[in-house]
Specification:
11 helices; 5-stranded parallel sheet; binds magnesium ion; binds thiamine diphosphate; Rossmann fold; PDH_E1_Alpha_Subunit; oxidoreductase; 7 strands; 42% helix; two-stranded antiparallel sheet; thiamine pyrophosphate; EC 1.2.4.1; globular
């Protein structure tokens, strides 16, 4: 099955298209700033950037409704921004400051927002997959019509726990969209070297889970596929798999010299398939925005990102006695109070 082609005529309003442009640009500029702060020594530990993959989360968030949940791996900054988490809180967490989402104690890979239904940020490859099914199990039990987006990579798709989860999610008809973000590499290993079959979206077949291959460089194709998947889940038909073909422009993490692929490969993708440039072209060619409008959006976005870096730098490091907090939960929801 071939990847979807970009809709010749976007089936969204010019305002929506502009919003996707703004949301994708925010992620890109945020990640560029995070890369700079890392280089300056202001961010420590692991840091995995999402540059190149922006259309995946922005397209799927466009298909989500209030109350839907999301859970992902360590490459998580884009997911947080796309679901409406505050860039200040995310940047402050990256820099290990008190104003961060985990009070500076979690860092890049461990952030959560109950308000935005974002359940992390997980450093163990594939571990979020059963957790995502668990979130969907709760929603199924509560019959609240919510759907969980469970994101994982092409590398994670080779893990055993993914298939145990597929089995359970299918048998219980859980409302979960398994989103395989196929950026074509798992650390330094290409999909070709690690994965026995090319079409990962077919791997739900033995469990009775339908799957679809989606062009992840085209935000409109992602939104359309997301709507279809979500409708399937909300209709009580069980899980759905979206394999979203995308590409990461940067290394696996900040410490990756990226010797396993050529500069030309990355350059070609940037020049020919960039998801932000694609929407930029649609806006300009459709007469929905002028160069000046887009410049203004760019400036707004940079201002938000610069402000988040300032906020992070000004926020103090967590106090020493924070070492003893947030170890055991003292806020366990009970019965009706469960966050539905
Ligand atoms: C259980 C486990 N094994 C190995 C690792 C080391 N590791 C971190 S990321 C990664 C590659 C995952 O690739 P993929 O699932 O394609 O996600 P991507 O980084 O491309 O987003 C590996 C092997 C880990 N964190 N956890
Ligand atoms: Mg990958």
């Amino acid at each position: 099955m071939a990847a979807r082609k970009s809709a010749a005529k976007p089936n969204v309003s010019p305002e929506e298209l502009k919003q996707y442009y703004r949301d994708m640009l925010l992620i890109r500029r945020f990640e560029e700033k995070a890369g700079q702060l890392y280089g300056m020594g202001l961010i420590g530990g692991f840091c995995h950037l999402y540059i190149g993959q922006e259309a995946v989360v922005v397209g799927l968030e466009a298909a989500a409704e209030e109350g839907d949940k999301r859970i992902t791996s360590y490459r998580d900054h884009g997911h947080m921004l796309a679901c409406g988490m505050d860039p200040n809180g995310v940047m402050a967490e990256l820099t290990g400051r008190e104003g961060g989402y985990s009070k500076g104690k979690g860092g890049s890979m461990h952030m959560f927002s109950r308000e935005k239904h974002f359940y992390g940020g997980h450093g163990i490859v594939g571990a979020q997959v059963p957790l995502g099914a668990g979130l969907a199990f709760a929603d199924n039990y509560l019959e609240n019509g919510r759907v969980t987006f469970t994101y994982f990579g092409d590398g994670a798709a080779n893990q055993g726990q993914v298939y145990e989860t597929f089995n359970m999610a299918s048998i219980w008809k859980l409302p979960v969209v398994f989103v395989i973000e196929n950026n074509q590499y798992a650390m330094g290993t290409s999909q070709k070297r690690s994965t026995s079959t090319e079409d990962i979206y077919t791997r739900g077949g033995p469990f009775g889970i339908p799957g679809e291959l989606v062009d992840g460089m085209d935000v409109l194709a992602v939104k359309e596929a997301g709507e279809k998947a979500v409708a399937h889940c909300r209709a009580g038909k069980g899980p759905y798999i979206l394999e979203i073909k995308t590409y990461r422009y940067r290394g696996h993490s900040m410490s990756d010299p990226a010797k396993y692929r050529t500069r030309e490969e990355v350059q070609k993708m940037r020049e020919e398939r960039d998801p932000i440039q694609n929407v930029r072209d649609l806006l300009l060619q459709g007469g929905h925005a002028t160069e000046d409008d887009l410049k203004a959006i760019d400036k707004e976005t940079k201002d938000v990102v610069n402000a988040s870096a300032e906020f992070a730098k000004e926020s103090p490091e967590p106090a020493l006695d924070e070492l003893w907090t947030d170890i055991y939960s003292d806020d366990v929801p009970q019965g009706d109070a469960i966050d539905a």
